[in-house]
Each structure stands twice: as C-alpha cells, then as structure tokens.
Amino acid sequence: MTKNYKILLAIIISSIIGANNTVTAQGSPADSQSLSMALQGGTIHIGNGEIIENGTVVFEKGLITYVGDENQQAEKNIDVSGQHIYPGLIAPNTRLGITEVDAVRSTRDFAEVGQYNPHIRALIAYNTDSDIIPTVRSNGILLAEITPSGGIISGQSSIVQLDAWNWEDAVYNSGSDEYKPAGIHLNWPSPYKYDRSINATTANDSYKENVDRIYKEFAEARAYQKIEGTPDPENLRFEAMAPVFDKSVRVFVHVNHKKGILDVIQFGESFGLKIVITGGNEAWKVADYLAEQEVPVVINATQRLPQSDDSSIDQPFKMASILEDANVLWCFSHHGSWEQRNLPFQAGQAVGFGLDQEAAIRALTLNTAKIYGIDQTLGSIEKGKDATIVVSDGNIMDPQSSIILHAFINGRTIDLDNKHKELYRKFGSKYGILD
After folding, report:
1. What letter would DSSP give residue 339?
2. Which of 121, 117, 114, 98 is nearest to 179 (CA)?
3. pLDDT band at 22, cuts 50/70/90?
4. Distance from chain centroid for Cα 404
5. Are 336 and 94 in contact (CB under 8 A)?
6. pLDDT reported for residue 18
7. How high is the pLDDT of residue 28?
8. Domains annotated on the chain, with CATH
9. Cα–Cα dist 296/40, whole Å
10. Secondary structure (DSSP) of 44-107
11. What is the pLDDT of residues 251-277, one digit of tens each?
C-alpha cells in the first residue's frame, strides 16, 4: 500500500467517523440524586418472582428506602399508574463499548494477541462515549458485563453501569472500594469439528490434546500460587489467576456441546474453581446434573438455530424453561454490542415457549446478579438495594408495547435519548411523518 493511499484511506475513515459523531444525542452523565423520589401507582416486578400491584417505590441518595402498596410521598413524586416498574436489566457477556462498528477494525478492541491472557482487562478499553450505549439504555439495560474474547484464556471481564464519564466511573464494585473482575473467561475447545469433505460433524482428533494444555496451564498457575515469598521472575499471567483458586473470582467457560460441558464440570472440580457455563447450547441435555452440581449457566441468545441437526427447530426457544424447571441458576445473554438492545425480547420469546413471565424477568435481573455475585446490591427492587430501576409503559419483554419512560441508576435520572431517536426526529420532520 502506497503512502498516499494510506493517507487517503485515513482521511476517508476520519470523515465517516466525524460525520457519525455529529448526530450523536449522548449528553453528560446524570448528576447524583439530590431529591428523594417516589414512583407511585405502578405494577412493581420485584425481580424475585413477586409482583406488587398499584405499588410505590421510594428511593433517596441512590438507595431504595421503601417498596410496597402504601401511597408514600417524597420530595419528587412521579405518577406511574398503569405502567410497569422493573429492576434495571443486566446484560452479560457483551462487547458493549469495546466494539463500535463491526466492519471497521479500528473500532474493535475486544481481543489481544496470544492464547493465554488472564491478566488482560477488557475494562480499560471500555468507551463510555460509544453511540451504542444510549440505544441499549433506551430498552431498559442499565448494566453490562464487558467481556474480552479470543485465544484460550481471553482475559478479565467487568460489570459496568451504563452512564459514566470514563471506565473508572463506570465499573461496578458492588459497594466495595476494592476492584475485582467479574470473572476470567476461558474458551473450551470443541469436541467436534465440521468435515467439509463429507459434509458432516466428526470427532475432533485434537480435543484431548487441547484440553490437556488447559489443564497444564492451570496446574502451573496453581503451583505458582504456592511459591513462598516473591517469585523471581514474576509471572503476570499466573498472578492474575490467583483469585480463581480461592474462588473469589469466577471462571466463565465458553462451551456449547454436552460432552464439553461435562468435561468442564470435571475440570472445575479438579482445580476447585467456581465455574459458570457460558453459551451452553446443549445445557438442556444435562440440566439435572447442572442443578445437582450447582453450576450456573449464561445461555446464548434464544433467537438462533439449534446446536445439532437432530434437535427440534424450537429447541433454543425452549431451553430457558427446561433449565428453570430443573432448578438451574441461569440467565439470558445476547451476542455482540448493539444487539444487546434486543436482550429483553429474547426473554419474551422464551415466555412464548413455556417460561413463566416473572421467571423471565428474574433471568434478566436477579439471576444475573446472583451469578456475578452482586445480588446484595442489585437485581431486585428491595429496600436497601441500589435504586437502579426502569419504568416501562408496557411489558418490557414485548417489542410492541415496551416503551421505556424512566430509568434510574443509583437514583440518578438517566437520559433516554439516543442517536436513533435523533435520526428519527430529523428525517421524520423532513418527510412529514411526525405530528
């Protein structure tokens, strides 16, 4: 590539990004809550399966102070009669803020070079000025897990709240001054591979070898933790893995096949790890065993094709209800960055295939908080928890009726405008389709 061509390409990309930024509607993060507030008359979906009709939620200084059916007053009262009050939704396993335009490499910052990167933090690449974030908030998602990908051990993920100046402000520490990652992400090899020559799936001959390498890496990391004094030289990769061996940090293992899931559970037992299955397309096949072993599952999007050709076409839609009936701790997830705005609608689809409505809400809120160890402060509308709340005009899981009217993060009133709404107003006015 010639020097002039590189300069021209840089100018074109800069022009596109510049034009993109001229229509953004994202403003400054909201100020801390100054007045006590009461949401009065709405249907409260607690997040734990309970519902309070015609209820009131009061919050002050970022914390919920009252939840019930009495008509409590505050310094600022908001009538939400006929509307629905939910805990702020939590989106796990996302590339939100670390991918802006999928087709533009310079806006993708979710992977690092190398196969074993437990010391890499996706958090420091998180872009709070992303135009995607306000579009996600507008559908009720107020927190997300920022997750690295690639390699064998991708790195550390973090939970962030989606209204902040920078990543330091965004990271959610669940009331603690000490930063801890949400988890370390491990990509488990597939036991199977697709053979194009015969147009069929066959056993992966290198599966055992790849699994043995993972065992070796964890064995060496565990041995490193037992070294007395300061190791010389220090190993940053092994240092970062110390919290997984005392179970203070979870290991999120990305695995889909039944055999892989069973092998992962055995792997976790071998090293005494706190394992979370992520993806788990065939988790429904071993649901009772997952419940018995108390292994949580972050399931893939419901709107996808089944894992195998011999599964029914609606198997991904039914998996949520199967895990729920088996008493597995599980939650919904979606892939990518901008796709996260459709997370609540994934849950709505699962409701159409046997999942209870409030169980679906729980899998968007409290279950997610439990899996990530932040349920003491988030995930449900209860006294003493963070006032991270969403008010919808209709069912938040129904794309036809869900209109988010109010959102609060730690009691702060969140701006629900976004780039899409601004473009709608702009061109709606041009073509006369707005009142």
Report:
1. G
2. 121
3. very low
4. 19
5. yes
6. 44
7. 86
8. 33-87+379-415 (2.30.40.10), 89-378 (3.20.20.140)
9. 35
10. EE-SSS-EEEEEEEEEETTEEEEEESS----SEEEE-TT-EEEEPEEEEEE-BTTBS-TT-GGG
11. 999 999 999 999 999 999 999 999 999
